[in-house]
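Comment on the following before class.
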Amino acid sequence: MTTNIVKRNTINRKIISISKKRQITIPLQFYKSLELGNEAECTLENGKLVIRPIRLEPSEFSVEILKDLVAQGYSGKKLVQAFEDQSKKVKQAVTCMLKEADAIAAGEIKTAGFDDIFGAGD
């Protein structure tokens, strides 16, 4: 019988506790290494919980907004006005998403599953 030994870098692996409120503490070395602030992105990928630093700066949103508006034919003062309008909408959407995420984390509202969004297989 052949045994495969998997070497793990113990610096990159820690066992952490999960509280009754589903809270975790990120080990200090990971927190510092990733330069995490007050928020992080949390995703479920192939059965794994992945926590990443949020690196999307407002200026990156700005570039995407501008590209879209220029592609729509805006220029000059109309471009500036449309940019201001779109920027406000992005800020409002982000605020709304953060409030919803907080409510989900607090157990106040349920998350929507795949079937909730796309309907069960008909």
